[in-house]
Description:
Blueprint (H helix, E strand, L loop, with lengths): L2 H12 L4 H9 L8 H7 L5 H14 L1
Amino acid sequence: MSSNGKLIQFLQHELAISSAEIDVLLRHPEHAHAPLPIILWQYGLITLQQLAQIFDWLEAQV
Length: 62
């Protein structure tokens, strides 16, 4: 599974972000180069605490 796929799986299982919400964000071409966690936060789909949790998870994946 790709790293982006693992991130999406984490978002869905740990933070209960729906696949529909993720799909909508991924379809916008202006966000193609922006990190998905930042986009989720900008759209109000996650809190700052959840954003920190995502960054902690990402760091642990390295």
